Structure formats: structure tokens, C-alpha cells
Amino acid sequence: MQEPQGTSGRTSPTVVEAEKEKGGCDPRNPATWSPRRKWLVTLVACYFTGLTGATASAYAMGFPSMMRELRCTEEQAALGISTFCLGFALVPLLTSAFSEEFGRRPLFVVCTIVFTATYIIQATANNIQTVIAARFICGAFGSTGSTMVGGTVADVWAPAEYILCPLVFLRGRPMAVYSLFAVAVTGAGPVVAGWIEMSLGWRWIQWIHTIAGGLCIVLTIAVLQETRTGIMLTRKAQALRAETGYMGYRARAEDTRGPLRSLLWISATRPLILLFTEPTVLFFSLWIAFAWGIMYSMFESILPVFEGLYGFNHGQAGLTFAGMTIGSHLGFVTNLYQESLYQKYFPTRGPEARLFASCGAALLFPVGMFIYAWGARAAIPWIVPVLGVTLFMWATFIMYLAVFTYLADCYGPYASSALAGQSLFRNLMGAVFPLFTQPMYARLGIHWASTLFGCIAVVMMPIPYHRSPPWSSASVLRFRAFAVTFASPAISRPEDPREKPLREYRCTPAFSLN
Known about the structure:
It is a single chain. By secondary structure, this protein is an all-alpha fold. About 70% of the residues lie in helices and about 0% in strands. The chain starts with 13 loop residues before the first strand and ends in a 28-residue tail after the last helix.
């Protein structure tokens, strides 16, 4: 075994160090890339996010021709919405383990290819069962466009505390752009799909998505690079071992990652334990999951309102979903102000500085639902219920972004597990709500069904206002530690240096192994 010069007699492995350039930051560290390169990677990843959002909602606009061609009921067609969300909810429990083992880029490439292939299966299906099964696979592989993109954004953009390194740029606005693609495009899908349904039928909704998916594959292969620093340094250590013959070169990730089986166990169990033992994770997840379920129920409730009460055709009814997109953009603009508040008050308030805008969203949420409920009358202009949808989505966008960033700030090395738990709960509600939307609206009527949602939203209003919750007792903290440890019996997961208190570093440390 050949050793590098000066390593004779060494008994411990050589930890791979990243080279440093002037300024103290490794140029290969994704967090120190140029802003142009960062934005290019971010926007391509967010394109995948937007495509999955459009897929979730545009499908519902094809129900009329789908039911005629496949001879299925509306309830059977609606199962495609639920199975998509079910795949979207379950698979992310495993993908984080595969990303630790193989990196983000291989997952992106594989998932975009399979995700696009499911459009072809749907477009050529001869029965509703094939469509429902393809929708589940579509949601399963499309979930990477949500969970992995958030991680990619976190890899290349640093939070506010990394200001000591001049080559690092802040994460808040790119994360808001990611959230905009995740939420706003969900409303944009039906705007276009309604007219496609009227002129070409439901199969062409899928064929057009296939074209968009093909573009996503090309951009992913051409633009997206590996951003997970542990994987990059592992490859560097492997290259050094091959070049020098000295097998002592090791990346820290190689020794701390553990076997894939253990990673899968942690990835699948720790989010569930945090979800059900951490009240902060549970209540914030319940809050955004309820809003998410209502959003998916609107894919089925909006069309009867505007086609039945106002006599809109299918394309015109699809245009009313633009209220969702407008509301999301209002939320994006609101977040710019929220970011300034966060930077101002973080030193004194900590993670709670993320929640100023969400406190206003807690009020806006039920107001939007009540306007949607009681503005939907033939004697009242159609713009009034659209206004209610807009206010609801304005609140939902703010809530979505606040929950995402707040849990990430609160849970440090367990942030990915906390976010996976809320994502599971949120998408399960997206799967469940469409199953009872039609029966509930048929029994209660448009007004009282939406009022029920609004009343539940009122009950949830106090959630973002908490400051010192009563559940932070010593006994609960001890149980929390036990629960997290129980979720990972096979290996002891070290903290990710990127997730330690950031004041300890004068540069982005994730690329440094020492």
C-alpha cells in the first residue's frame, strides 16, 4: 500500500480536507458558488417542483372526457388525485436515505425520467385502473420535485447567520421562490388544462405534460450538479485512494453514514416519532395539512360553483383557479417583508422571528374560507368567491413557507426528519380530502361545507402565536431524546456541521472535514 509522503507509520486514517482559496472558502462548496450559478441550479430544480404541482391539479380538469371515454364515475376519476398524493406522501420517507448514499443528482435524473414516463402511461390508458395506478407512481417519483428540491436549495444557499463569509448568499428568497413554484403553479395548471379539455380532451393534458417532462429531463441532466457535500468529499477521498494507493484517505461521511439499511430505518421512523412526540411538529403539521387538504378539495368544489351557479364553461371555470396563483404571488411579496423582519429580530427572538407573517395568515385563512362559502351565490358577482380563494391561497402560501423555515430552524440536525414528518401528514390530507369532498358538499351544500372548513380554521388560529409552550417540560424533553434515539438504534447519527449554531464558523463549514 503506497502512502503519501510524510505518512509513514501513521496508524489513523487521513481525513480529507477541502482545498481553500483566498478568502477562506472552498470554491467547490455549493454554498460559495456564484449567484448566477446558484440561481441556475435553483430555477431548474424549481421547474421540476412546478411541474409536479401542475400535475396534481390539472388532472382534475380532464374528468368530463375521461369519464366518457373510460366509462368511469367521477368518484373513480377522483381517486387519481388521492393516489397521487399518497405516493407523494409515502416515498419521501425513503428518498432521503438514498440521497445520503448516492447523492441528489442521480435521484433527480432517475425520478424525472420515471415521472415523465407515467404521463405516457396515463395518456395511452384504456381503463381507469391503469390511470389510478400510474398516478400513484407519478406522485411517488414526483415527490422528489418537492422534498429534494428544498434540500438542494438549502445546500447552495446559506441562512442569515452565514454572513461572516463574503462568498455566501442568503437562503430566504430562494426558498420563497421554491415555495412559489410549489404552490402557485398548482393553481396555474387548471387555467390551461380547462381549455385543453374542451378542445382536445383529457389525453392531451397528459401529452402536453409529457413534453414539459421531457424538457425537465434535459435540463436536469445538463444543469443540475451534485450539491450534497458529504457525497462530493466521499468521491474526492475515493479518487485520492485510487491515485495514490494509500487507503487511509477517508471522508468523514464514509465513517459516519452507516449502512443503507440503517439509513432507511432512520429515514422511515424518525419523521413519524418526531411528528407524534413533538407538539411543535404535530401542531404546525396539522395546521398546514388542513390547509393543504382544503386546497385539494377545491379542485373538485370550484368547478360546480362556477359552472353550476354562474354558467361558466369548462375553460372559463378553469380560469378561476388563477385566484390561487395570484394568492401565491401575494404570499411571495409578503415574504419579502417577512424576511426583513426575520433578519431584524432573529438576534432577540430566534426561530420565532419566522412567524410574524404567519400570525397574519392565521387570520386571513378563515376569512378567505367564509368569503368563498357565502360569496358563492347567483346574485353575487363571481369575482367575490374568487377573492375568497385568493385570500385562502395567500394565507396558505405564507403558512407553507413559515412552517418549512420555522421547523428547519428549530430542529437543527433533525430538521430534515421534522420536515419529512410534516410533508407526510400534509400530503396524506391531500389524499384524504378529495375522497369526501363530493359527498360533503352534496349533503351540506356549498355554503355550509365551506363554512365548516372556515370554523375549523378559526379553532387553529392560535397555533403560530405560541411563544413558550407548556409542553417543554423536562419530562417531555427526556422522552423526546429517548424517542429520537429509539428511531436510530443501528447507528449514531452525528450532527451535520451545516446545522450546528452558525456563529461557530467563519465560513461555510459543510465542505470541511477536520
